[in-house]
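Look over this today:
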Amino acid sequence: RRRPIYMLVMFFHAGFLLFMFFGGFVIEKLLADYGALYAGYKFALSIDFKLIFRYFGIIPLALIAAGAVWAAVKRDKRIYMIFIQIILCFAMFIRTQTHGQQHLLLYIPALVSLAVIALERIPAKALTAVLAAAAVLSANTLVDRPQPASLSEIKSYAAVPSFAMRPKTRGDVKQIFALKAYLDTLAEKGGKVGVIASSLLFNKDVLENAEMSFNIEDDAPDNYFIELPAVDSRDTDLSAFYEADYIVTADPVQTHLAPENQRVVTVPCQSFAEGVDIAEAFEMLEAEFKVGNIKVNIYKRVRENTEEEKRVFENKIMLT
């Protein structure tokens, strides 16, 4: 505060470096319409609160807030900045999309600070009881319980944290490795593989990271998976479908959002199931696989797609 020139120099250097070496990238990100790009991820405001209470609980948040209010009454000025941070993060985020569980990390520093401030106001005699209650709430998250597969499946406002720390266990690991091994053999002959699926159970990343997930060395060709469009509002470039040498589809269709927000997944799956438009340039391989209850089919490109096939395919996705 005594020498503001140093702050100005720092901002000048940062700005110079950003715009000199990353100018195009910075401008693109600053001017992007994230509300439109992530429209498929925006649900009712009630979903945001259900998710927040699922991970933090109404009662713990209420107790932390009560302690913070008491601190504010005692003129603890730290409270104001912390609440500004929480409110600003929440207000700005919901303008773009609904929170996912990873986005709640935005609030962890503020909530931990509020909890510490609240603990400072608790009498020493009551501190043991408070810490014991916190331990019980923490232990509650170790209890195995059914977990929602998507945000829309969270039905209630949880009084205490209701998520489970223990991850789901999969019974289809051998099936995933069998499918991955087969795709590896296809890639060794040359070719890019596209996976038309984006659910939490089955998607490109599940296959691409199978070996790494188990700390197994992967001898497969590098980077043979290509990124196919998955969300309508975000992925408008459909050219990847025309570049894939092999296409993997799932039955039933695997989406992580409402199907109407993922027509770039549902429409091509339907095309391959019916053998029309872009699928006419492929033939289905005889190898069949299952991942859990999901039937997996693999298609090999036999020729380039015609402009008419591309037009019909793209028009189907554009339909509302």
Observations:
- Residues 179 and 289 are 7 Å apart (CA to CA).
